[in-house]
Design a protein that fits this description.
The chain is mostly helical. The protein contains 6 helices and no strands. The chain starts with a helix and ends with a helix.
């Protein structure tokens, strides 16, 4: 919940779908790097309750997807997002990309930052730009 709150606050300060998506993704990766304890909880303490609660992950993914869908809808209304996209499908795709890289960073402990993070964001934005 705190992670999502951080992301929602970060995008509230942005204007436009591209800026919101960029900040959403980059801030999420940065949050994971700043909170290294999450790596331990998710990867090393297998007996910890969260590891047995699949609804925690499901809820997190749905919250991410709902937030991304909202950004895409606002962007479409503003003419920033392609009209030919099925927004639910694109939100699902962007959520999976986001989750995959955030998870990779958490599991391996290797930061997804700098040019790699920037290139990932640009690829995602290229897929949705009007």
């Amino acid at each position: 919940a705190e992670w999502l709150e951080t992301l929602v606050e970060a995008i509230a300060n942005e204007s436009g779908a591209e800026a919101e998506l960029r900040v959403f993704f980059l801030e999420s990766l940065a949050y994971g790097r700043r909170n290294a304890f999450i790596t331990r909880l998710l990867t090393r303490d297998a007996q910890f309750l969260i590891s047995t609660e699949t609804q925690v992950t499901d809820r997190a993914v749905e919250d991410l997807s709902r937030t991304i869908r909202g950004i895409l809808k606002r962007g479409r209304r503003a003419g920033e997002i392609r009209r030919d996209l099925a927004l639910d499908h694109m939100a699902d795709f962007l959520t999976e990309m986001h989750f995959a890289y955030a998870n990779r960073q958490l599991v391996t402990g290797v930061p997804v930052a700098g040019a790699l993070a920037d290139d990932l964001v640009e690829a995602m934005l290229a897929a949705v730009r009007a």
